[in-house]
Write a structure and sequence with these properties.
Layout (H helix, E strand, L loop, with lengths): L25 E6 L2 E6 L7 E4 L5 E6 L5 E8 L13 H8 L12 H19 L4 H19 L6 H8 L3 E7 L4 E8 L3 H11 L8 H16 L2 H13 L4 H4 L6 H4 L4 H11 L5 E7 L3 H12 L22 E7 L4 E9 L4 H14 L6 H7 L6 E8 L3 E9 L6 H17 L5 H18 L2 H15 L4 H5 L1 H6 L3 H11 L4 E8 L25 H8 L12 H4 L1 E5 L2 E7 L5 E8 L9 H7 L10 H10 L2 E7 L4 E8 L3 H14 L4 H18 L3 H14 L11 H6 L2 H10 L5 E7 L3 H11 L24 E6 L4 E12 L5 H11 L6 H9 L5 E7 L7 E11 L3 H13 L5 H17 L6 H11 L7 H8 L4 H11 L6 E6 L14 E4 L2 H5 L2
Helix pairs in contact: 1-10, 2-3, 4-33, 5-11, 12-19, 13-14, 14-19, 22-28, 30-33, 30-35, 30-36, 31-32
Length: 978
């Protein structure tokens, strides 16, 4: 939904690095008539081209699957917004999806005069202050917009992208960037480039006032998000003069109310120029062909001088600055430091090492001294490595009975340890080894490749890519002495201290909803441009099906069954022990799984075990779900034996510790209290309550009294006993089946016979005989509305029509639901609806729908969704787009690695023995609109629903909801079970 995003890249893009020497050098090469630069030793083998007009093009080829992650980035974000029109870059990002004179319009000659008139009206509106005059102007804007919309084709961009099989259609705006994102099939390159070249040629700002309302909703959702408000308060305080703190990306309320299309066009003309843009491809393609096609398609662009934002120098912070933010969510504390920016490559790499020494998830100072010892509910480190400055922040949450000031003192205590150098220097070596692991993992993903390259372009136009490639080597050169010196210079009393406290923020000002008349969306209309793009030839891609009997090898690891797929790509392994029991079999099992991370054995303390895993770049996890429990161990194959043996030792020999359990119980009780303050958790629980009734999977957990009665001995016994139950061993790694089987047999304890699983509880979905409203009170401006209805039992023969229906009805930005609720009626920023298939054969389908809107728009939003649930709009063009998109998705999908095994296990659970995608694919062309209409009529239309509504009683009275059915106010205790 094109949300504003915060990008924190895990590796490669986290920072820029100090100068590299030796095996990393810039080189030049020519291929296919084009010269490019590359860095020797680059694992991505990135090619850097600069076209004649200054356009940067960057490629990274990865033949893993026939898809390409594409990014088109502009080096301008909210930093570049005019002071009197903040939020403008973000507005423009939304408008780049509205089309041009060539597409998105039924008749450009007739539409253009109305668009010109709307632009003039907004200009007048922008300069008018009298409230009554503004209302009259907005009525004119609304009226003319309705006339203009009769010639507009809503979402035609999304339709074209769906037609060619694109996925992940999105964009984001941040402080220094605006980036447009598409994941396309490898055979759609020409179609993609044709659309993008036209998209950036001359964008037209049609259907503006409904899109404006979507931005209003996005702003209001941010006002209901305590984390977002903490983030904005942090930046505002750290940067009293720099735009990082003075101009929020989404804009001020006052500026959002007064948009200027002329100012938006001016921004576009100034910054959307080739010498300020990059096109990035990561995936399966021929670089010589693609660079030629990009050059041909984008040569019309002419370079212009770009006025980059000139950053002011902030005055040093010489003493702690204290700020508070109030809101309904859980309390926490943050310490934020203003550091040298990412362009200071030497200090940037130092910050990365320091952040890992403090917190790396296993063996950092915060990990071992605070989290592992349960001195706080949770603590961590985050960085925002921007060009001019980097934000370096420590955060902590209080456990039960602990003040935020106590958490603050504990965080400062860890910084004091850092400044004194009271840490093991070998930790730096371990950090480097783990980043080698991250690099290997990251290379598997086209998204990681593309985002790394884009981040480098935004920060320094890619000129320092050599330093990025040398990232891990340069980290290894950092010494303990340098770290201590840096910490004593930069991490002292120069911080902003932010307290997130529970309470009402009386200063929140929402963006009021203007009156908007629904506009035409012309679903069945198509521009000539769309028809031309659709007719462009594309080499067919043959789908690939799994053959479980051939793609998975089976063996034994002692008495346990073993499923095996070999990793032929790199040196990583992933090992799993999978048990067919979970929380439904024993509510204490998830508790025991979490408890293990705090336990030691007769040989090692818990801290020593964490250090050992981190030192060998391996990790473990126990995930106890509803009906399955999965133990996973992963890392570098060279350390397979050490990791598997160490985990088995921990599981079989962990020592019960009542003091540790007391601390763990305290933290759980505080987390439970915090969950009751989190609107996402509350809404999830409310949906489960509506789906299953008062006794449901969400609240299937120990009561607080039962939790208090649990002993350390019984949790340790549960863990010791776990391998005695039947489990399947899953291995994905470089070893042969025989070698992996022998190694697991030697290192992992498997009994000669397995114990029977305990009898599991069963939760049956309810049958809605009449519509009912389940209401929960929460202090917020927004209202969250979900529709739930349980349907018929699972039938695999319905899979194709169910998937096609979801594609058509409510599965994306080109769907009927999104077009109607957001594009036409401007009732919500976020909305969806789908017919959800179960994950096991004896379960039932469920209809799920959602609208997040302003509380004063709830009745309109509910009416809008109900209309769609009861009467399915017919659009042959939208249906063909949904069908085409579905086919191309299947054709280019490649299930690989351990995904093959988990696909097999999921199929088994549904009672299937084959890859169901094959039968689905073969059915697609036979399906007609009547098929999805029949599904809609039989399972969705005219049915009673459970309405799950989360809102503030001060804004939405439960008694006002009786028109939708009997109203039941559900308490937090009923929702959570404690």
């Amino acid at each position: 939904m094109r949300p504003f995003k915060l990008f924190l890249f895990l590796f490669l893009t986290a920072t820029l690095q100090i100068s590299a020497q030796g095996r990393y050098e810039w080189k030049e090469a020519t291929s296919g008539g084009y010269t490019y630069r590359y860095v020797t030793g680059d694992p991505m083998q990135a090619r850097y081209y600069t076209l004649k007009n200054g356009l940067t093009v960057i490629f990274s080829v990865n033949k893993k699957e026939p898809r390409i992650q594409t990014l088109i980035g502009i080096r301008a974000g909210s930093n570049s917004d005019p002071k009197d029109h903040t939020g403008l870059a973000h507005y423009l990002e939304h408008l780049l999806f509205k089309g041009t004179a060539q597409y998105g319009s039924l008749d450009w000659a007739k539409e253009k005069p109305y668009l010109d008139q709307i632009e003039g009206l907004y200009d007048t509106y922008n300069q008018t202050t009298d409230p009554e005059l503004r209302k009259g102007l907005y009525r004119q804007i609304d009226s003319v917009s309705g006339l203009a919309a009769k010639y507009a084709i809503a979402n035609e961009y999304d339709k074209m992208m769906s037609n060619m099989g694109a996925q992940g259609t999105n964009a984001h705006t941040w402080v220094e960037e605006t980036v447009y994102e598409e994941d396309i099939p490898s055979n759609s390159i020409d179609k993609f480039l044709s659309v993008q070249a036209e998209r950036f040629r001359d964008p037209q700002f049609r259907i503006f006032h409904t899109e404006l309302e979507a931005v209003y909703e996005e702003k209001n959702r941010g006002l209901d998000n305590d984390g977002r408000r903490m983030y904005e308060k942090m930046l505002e305080t750290l940067f009293p003069t720099h735009n990082y703190g003075q101009q929020s990306t989404i804009g001020t309320v006052e500026h959002l109310k007064n948009p200027s299309l002329k100012a938006i066009r001016k921004f576009y003309n100034e910054y959307y120029v080739p010498n300020n843009m990059a096109i990035i491809f990561a995936g399966d393609f021929d670089p010589d062909y693609v660079i030629r096609r990009i050059d041909e398609k984008f040569s019309y662009m002419q370079p212009k001088p770009v006025q980059e934002y000139k950053a002011p120098v902030e005055a040093p912070i010489t003493a702690p600055i204290v700020k508070e933010v109030f809101g309904p969510d859980a309390e926490n504390v943050n310490l934020a430091f203003r550091m040298p920016g990412a362009l200071d490559t030497k200090n940037a790499v130092m910050l990365t090492v320091i952040s890992q020494i403090l917190s790396n998830g296993k063996a950092g100072l915060l990990d071992l001294n605070l989290n592992k010892q349960q001195k706080v509910l949770g603590a961590g480190v985050s960085t925002l490595p921007w060009k001019d400055y980097t934000v370096f922040a420590l955060s902590g949450r209080a456990k039960q009975g602990q003040s935020l000031d106590e958490v603050k003192d504990l965080l400062l205590g860890q910084l004091d340890i850092l400044r004194k150098g009271e840490f093991d220097e070998t930790l730096i070596t371990a950090i480097v080894n783990n980043f080698k692991l991250y690099e290997i993992q990251g290379l598997e993903s086209n998204g990681n490749r593309a985002n790394s390259l884009m981040d480098a372009f935004i920060k320094h136009r890619g000129e320092n890519w050599l330093h990025d490639v040398a990232y891990i080597d340069d980290m290894g050169k950092v010494t303990k002495q340098q770290i201590v010196a840096f910490a004593n210079e930069y991490l002292v009393d120069n911080y902003v201290l932010l307290y997130k406290r529970k309470g009402e923020d009386k200063d929140i000002e929402k963006v009021d909803k203007p009156p908007i008349t629904p506009v035409e969306v012309n679903r069945d209309a198509q521009s000539e441009f769309l028809r031309t793009v659709s007719a462009m030839p594309a080499t067919p891609v043959k789908p690939q099906w799994l053959d479980y009997s051939k793609d998975i090898q089976k063996g034994k690891a002692g008495h346990a069954d073993m499923l095996y797929v070999q990793n032929k790509d790199n040196s990583l392994f992933r090992l799993y022990y999978r048990f067919d029991m979970g929380a439904w079999s024993n509510k204490k099992l998830p508790l025991a799984a979490q408890y293990l991370q705090f336990l030691g054995t007769d040989k090692y303390s818990s801290e020593e075990i964490s250090k050992q895993f981190y030192n060998i770049a391996c990790s473990f996890n126990i995930a106890a779900g509803s009906e399955e429990t999965t133990i996973s161990i992963s890392g570098l194959q060279e350390n397979f034996d050490k990791a598997v043996e160490l985990f088995d030792h921990l599981l079989l020999n962990c020592k019960a510790d009542e003091a540790v359990l007391d601390g763990f119980r305290n933290r759980i009780l505080k987390q439970r209290a915090d969950n009751k303050l989190n609107k996402g958790q509350i809404l999830n629980g409310l949906r489960s309550y509506a789906t299953y009734g008062p006794r449901n999977p969400f609240n299937n957990q120990l009561s607080n009294e039962e939790l208090e009665a649990v002993t350390a001995a019984e949790l340790a016994a549960l863990l010791h006993d776990l391998p005695a139950y039947r489990h399947t061993v899953i291995y994905y790694g470089p070893q042969s089946l025989s070698a992996a089987s022998a190694a697991v047999k030697r290192l992992h304890h498997v009994p000669s016979s397995f114990k029977a699983y305990p009898v599991a509880q069963q939760f049956e979905k309810t049958t809605q005989a009449a519509s009912k409203v389940y209401f929960a009170d929460y202090d917020m401006v927004q209202a969250e509305v979900s529709w739930v209805r349980n349907g018929n039992p699972y039938d695999p023969s319905h899979t194709a029509v169910v998937n096609l229906f979801n594609n058509y009805f409510g599965g994306g930005m080109g769907s009927i639901v999104f077009q109607t609720i957001r594009e036409s009626k401007a009732l919500a920023y976020s909305t969806y609806a789908y017919y959800a298939a179960p994950n096991k054969k004896n379960d039932r389908y469920a209809i799920m729908a959602y609208v997040g809107s302003q509380a004063d728009k709830v009745n309109e939003a509910i009416a809008g969704m109900n209309e769609l649930l009861n009467a399915l709009p017919q659009s042959e063009k939208a249906f063909e787009t949904a069908r085409s998109s579905m086919k191309k998705d299947i054709e280019t999908e490649r299930i690989t690695q351990d995904g093959i095994i988990f696909s097999y296990l999921s199929a088994q659970k549904l009672g299937l023995d084959k890859d169901i995608r094959k039968s689905v694919y073969e059915s697609i062309d036979k399906l007609t609109f009547d098929d999805i209409k029949q599904l809609h009529q039989q399972n969705i239309a005219g049915k009673p629903y459970s309405y799950c509504i989360l809102a503030s009683e001060s804004r939405l009275k439960p008694e006002d909801l009786k028109q939708y059915g009997e109203v039941q106010k559900v308490s937090l205790e009923e929702i959570f079970g404690y």
